Amino acid sequence: MHLAVVGCAIFKNEIDFLKSEITSTLDFFWLPQKLHNKPLELRKLVQEEITKIDEAPGPGVQGEAPEPGVQNEGPEPGVQNEGPEPYDAIVLLYGLCSKGTMGISSKKYRVVVPRMQDCIGLLMGSNERYIKHFREKPGTYWFTKGWIETGFDPGKRSEYEGVFDPYKERYREYRKKFTEELSRFLIDEWDQHWIKNYTTLAFIDWGIKRADNLKKRARKSAQSMGLEFEVIKGDPGLLLDLLNGVWDSDKYDEDRFLQSRYLVVKPGYKIIPSYSDTVLTCTESDPRRTAGAGRLFGDKTGISEKRTGIGLGIDAGGTYTDSVIYDFTNEEVLASAKALTTHDDYSVGIESSLCSLLEKVSGWVCEKIGLVSLSTTVATNAIVEGKGGKVGLVLIGYENYAAGKIAFDPKVMIRGKHNIQGEVIEPLDEKEAKKAVRYLLGKGIEAFAVSSEVGVRNPEFEQRVKEIIMEETRLPVVCGSELTTEINCVKRANTCFFNARLIPLVTGLLSSVKKVLDEKKIEAPVMVVKGDGTLMGEVVAKMSPIDMVLSGPAASVIGGIYLSGIRDGYVVDMGGTTTDVACVNEGFVSFKEDGIRIGSFRTSVNTVNVHTFGLGGDSYVQYHLKSRKITVGPARVIPVSYLAHLHPEIFSVLEDKSEKFKGDEILVQPCDFFIYQKDMKGQDLHPQESAIIEALKDHGPMSRTELAKRVGACSVAILRTDRLEGYGNILRSALTPTDVLHAAGAVSLWNADAARKSVSLYAVRANMEEQEFIDKTLKEFYRTLLFRLFEFWFTEDGRFTDEETFSANLSSHLFFSNKEIHLSAELNKPIVFIGAPAAKYAQGIKRLIGVEIIVPENYGVANAVGAITGAIREDITILIRPHIDGGYVAYTSEEKKYFETLSAAKDAMAELARTTAAQKARRSGALHLNADVRIEDKEVKISEDDTIYLETIVKASVSSIPVLKEQ
Fold first, then answer.
1. Per-residue pLDDT tens for 872-903?
2. What's this model's pTM, rounded to 2 decimal places?
3. What is the full DSSP assignment across 456-515?
């Protein structure tokens, strides 16, 4: 074998030592040492040598090992040899070397390079030995015979105390300009400071002649630098095989993480980092020229098509369940209705809302309903509250540290592992899998969640475990790779687990909704709003309910955009419990790119980017005696005017309240009432908690004072209600902004007398006139609203380091002015206000800041409008990357596929993405199945005229209106 060897002169001694064992004919093209400190220069010089070799007619005469620094002992460029045979390959005596070899390519020959970070692994005989030592002693400085003989000895002392020999000339330069003290400081802190990063000096010993003397020099250097000294036995096997052309991987299986010791790069391919244990891989020199990057085919037909017919939109929100009948043909709401949301059984609130709705329309309208669409908070609330079915979680190949972050039970871990490229490094233990499945079935689970640590790179283990589960049971099975392309294994497992937990809950909800619709003689396809604002069919929703997270806020944004017609601006949805804010750009809302956090759990759920804060029409108004401040929210309570509307006797209780508060009544709010909701199950109750539930259950709503007497509490201030409220066993009723508006005469929904009496009691507590208390409460409401809106706007802007403090100060000062100063703010984009209280509060905001306010028609039921006017969108994303041994690998949700060329990979994956997206859209009930396919190459620039290909993203999207029932 005849090889051209381009390498660092550091290897001269080692190759001379091995020459009796080298069987190949070698031509050496040496480059200076220390180029790893200058990776751009290293890349330039290596590529120049390879280009010369490519352009030469053939090999020259094998070069003798030169003195360090001699660059080329191969043939002179342009010299014609008679009948030369071409080289078998070009061998690089480099590793990645600070990315100095990234982009190296030969047009004519194969290039063989050891899969090493640098020369140390090559001299130690194994990248794994190097990595193992690095992990044990990361602060190691390495010495070899070649390094020492270059004359560079960082530990050699000079004639200047404390200054090592390599830096004596620099010290002399400093002394010409500075004092001795400053010169020594500069040497210590600038030139010699790197020594402080090391703890050990290691000498790699190959047993070469004069090694003992070299070891003594290395030991002395270590002592002078204050480092531990260590001798590491070198191994010439890796270098010898490299030079003898033994490049196959069969001989080498020392470490399961490494597929091959060497990367063999085909002509026309470039070396690139693999960012994994394999260190290096390769790609075509310019794959874009053969692969049509960025092309677009298919179309977007379907999403903008004019709709006809009638639809029913339902939004089961945190406070109210809204419903609308929408005429697609004329683009108008025919009727709308509201009912209180019933969180224990959402179908009860839905039925109540539908009953009110259908009373407002003729019977023929129900028969014409061709589509039903539902948005709901059920998925989000269930995750936050820990509700849903019992799930058995199967983790495949997870490391202990990752599994420890997944706090769900019951869970099992089974063996089977892939590396980040999707290559098997430990086979799946099927016996263990079967045992685990039976164990989980014995725990009474209702669904399985299966997640492999690197399942997004190769889902074969997940698919096999799913098959094993289906052989044992008919329970639902969800695999992480079916839901997301998220690489973070913890987020993926969380997503998979929650999806499985929600399946029984959402299946039950949709069955209940279908039952209600059947009773109302409504026969139409049922769609569900996803967290990104698009729709999915009933069948899909039952298997992928995790996509319903933030369904309600998404529907509100879609409804706000649809009703207002804005292209740029903000949608603010104010409900009873919370306010949601979203930014709209060019008619579209932005998305959360890295998934959302639900409670303490990170997930990979794709949702609209909605900022939610606890402020609404039902926010708890409190007056704090100590600070003499009024606060609004974030807790939600039942408006006292609504409670008195349902229970008129409440007004009598308020009337009987003395305006002179006695004893510890001064420690609590004046108008707190409590209402029974449900018994506590499966929890150990304090005797007082049990007494509270029984008293409210038997006697109906009670004031705090009366309830304290009923249960024998020693003080009204220490009633044990917090836990019962948290679990939803009891509800609190108190003063809210809605009550304040009743007292001000701005609204007349419920019992205004109860609201006025409550305000009167608060005003006495605060030592204010009633009107003053009303004004200050509304002022605080607007200040809190502005504070949260400013916080959202400044966070979106991204130029503020402390959005919260800045927003709090600005929102406070907008309410302050005097003769010297008046602050004002102006927003350049309009705000669309929707939600039940929108009309009442929107104009108040306009008085405080300069902004265009849009309150569209049907603002109070915008969520339900958003639910029925949404569209279907299904996306498929496939990743293509260079394979570690050449060629390309595509990662799909079902398998990974290998291709010889990038163009073949792109063609095949574009077609697969198109058909898969169309199939998903069909399952969701899409009318049109035309896919929009985009191909994007990602690359990095390594020089002014050269780039490195990294990966390709193939994305197919189907956007369509849903199929309506035929009339």
1. 999 999 999 888 777 889 999 888 899 988 89
2. 0.70
3. TT-THHHHHHHHHHHHH--S-EEEHHHH-----HHHHHHHHHHHHHHHHHHHHHHHHHHH
